[in-house]
Write a structure and sequence with these properties.
With 331 residues, the chain is mainly α. The chain is built from 16 helices and two strands. The protein has helices at residues 2-23, 29-36, 46-57, 62-87, 98-101, 104-123, 132-159, 167-192, 197-224, 227-230, 236-239, 245-253, 256-267, 273-285, 288-306, 314-328; strands at residues 91-92, 95-96. It has a two-stranded antiparallel sheet. A hairpin with a 2-residue loop joins β1 (91-92) and β2 (95-96).
C-alpha cells in the first residue's frame, strides 16, 4: 500500500510541474489561481500516473505520455470543480471547494479553462516529436471520455429519487462517471507509448475494470470502513439518499416491508444515525455489502488478468500493485 502511494507521489512530481508550466500563462491572475487551486491540494494523481505507467508498460517512456497524463488530471479536476458546484459541496480534498473560495461564476470559468487547456496540451505533444496519429488517437480517447463523464453525471442526477434503478443501469452509470476517465488514462497512455492494438485494448479493459472497482469500493467503504479512516461518519451516502450498488441490490432482494423501510430512510433528508445504522443492517440482511465487495474483487481480478499479454516489467508490476491498491485502500 505504502509502495503504491510512493509510486504515485514520484510520478506526480512531473505531472504537477507540467500542469504548473501550462497554467502559468492564464490571465487574469484570479482565474489562474482558481484553476490551479485543486491541483495543489494533494490528490492521489492516480489517473495521470496510470497514463505514464501504461506508456512504459508497452515499451514507451513516460515523456511520451506526459502532456496527455497532465491533460487527464486537468479533465478530472474540471469535473470535480463542476461536481462541487452542482452538489453545493463545501469541501474538496480537505480544503474549501473552489466555488467557496471564489464564487460559482469564477469556479465555472476555472473548470472550463482546465477543460480547454487539457486538449491544447495533448495537441502540443506534437511539438515534442510525438507521432501525429498517436496524438490524434489519444485526443479522440480523451474527448470520448469527457462525453461519457457528462452522460454518467446526468444519469446519476436522474437516479435521484428513483428506487427502481437496475444493476445494469447503475453499472453503466458508474463506468461513465468514474471508470471512463481511468480507462482513457490507461488507453491514451498506451497509445502514446506506441502500443499495438491488442495492448491498447488490454489496457483500456484494465482501466475500465479498476475504475468500476474504484467507485464500488468508495461506496463499500462508506458503510464498511472504520470511521476514523474514512474521515466522516459511516453511512453518509445513505443519509444523502445516494444510489449505490448496495442500495440497488438490497432494494431488488428485500421483501415488501424491508424495501419500504429502506426507501423511507433514503428519502428522509433528516435521517438519524440510528436510521442509517438500520439501513446498514438491511444491507447485511440481504447480503448487499458482501455482494458489492465481491463485484469489486471480480473487476480487480479481471483487470490483472488482461495484463498477462504485456511483457514483464517494473511498469507492469506497478499496474498490478495499483489494482490491488484500489481494493485494499481504507479511504
Amino acid at each position: 500500500m505504502s509502495d503504491v502511494t510512493d509510486v504515485l507521489k514520484e510520478y506526480s512530481k512531473d505531472i504537477i510541474k507540467t500542469i504548473e508550466e501550462n497554467l502559468a500563462v492564464i490571465e487574469p491572475e484570479e482565474l489562474q489561481e482558481s484553476s490551479i487551486y485543486l491541483t495543489r491540494a494533494g490528490g492521489k494523481m492516480l489517473r495521470p500516473s496510470l497514463a505514464l505507467i501504461s506508456s512504459q508498460a508497452v515499451g514507451g517512456n513516460k515523456e511520451d505520455a506526459l502532456n496527455t497524463a497532465a491533460a487527464i488530471e486537468l479533465i478530472h479536476t474540471f469535473s470535480l470543480i463542476h461536481d462541487d458546484i452542482m452538489d453545493d459541496d463545501d469541501m474538496r480534498r480537505g480544503m474549501p471547494a473552489v466555488h467557496k473560495v471564489w464564487d460559482n461564476s469564477l469556479a465555472i470559468l476555472a473548470g472550463d479553462t482546465l477543460f480547454s487547456k487539457a486538449f491544447e496540451m495533448i495537441i502540443s505533444s506534437k511539438d515534442n516529436n510525438a507521432e501525429p496519429k498517436r496524438v490524434a488517437d489519444a485526443l479522440a480517447v480523451v474527448a470520448d471520455a469527457c462525453v461519457k463523464i457528462c452522460e454518467g453525471q446526468a444519469s446519476d442526477i436522474g437516479f435521484e429519487g428513483d428506487f427502481d434503478v437496475s444493476q445494469e443501469a447503475y453499472s453503466n452509470m458508474i463506468y461513465k462517471k468514474t471508470g471512463a476517465l481511468i480507462a482513457a488514462a490507461t488507453k491514451a497512455g498506451a497509445i502514446m507509448g506506441g502500443a499495438d492494438d491488442e495492448q491498447v485494448h488490454a489496457l483500456y479493459e484494465y482501466g475500465r475494470m479498476i475504475g468500476t472497482a474504484f467507485q464500488i469500493q468508495d461506496d463499500y467503504l462508506d458503510v464498511a470502513a472504520e470511521a476514523e479512516d474514512l474521515g466522516r461518519p459511516l453511512g453518509s451516502d445513505i443519509a444523502k439518499g445516494k444510489m449505490t450498488l448496495m442500495v440497488v441490490k438490497a432494494l431488488a432482494e428485500a421483501d415488501e416491508s424491508d424495501r419500504a423501510r429502506l426507501v423511507e430512510i433514503l428519502e428522509d433528508e433528516n435521517s438519524s444515525q440510528d436510521d442509517v445504522d438500520e439501513a446498514i443492517d438491511l444491507f447485511n440482511k440481504y447480503g448487499s455489502i458482501e455482494y458489492a465487495h465481491n463485484v469489486a474483487l471480480e473487476n480487480i481480478n479481471g483487470a490483472k488478468e488482461v495484463l498477462e499479454i504485456l511483457p514483464d516489467s517494473e511498469a507492469k508490476q506497478q499496474l498490478i500493485d495499483i489494482a490491488d491498491f484500489v481494493l485494499e485502500r481504507k479511504s
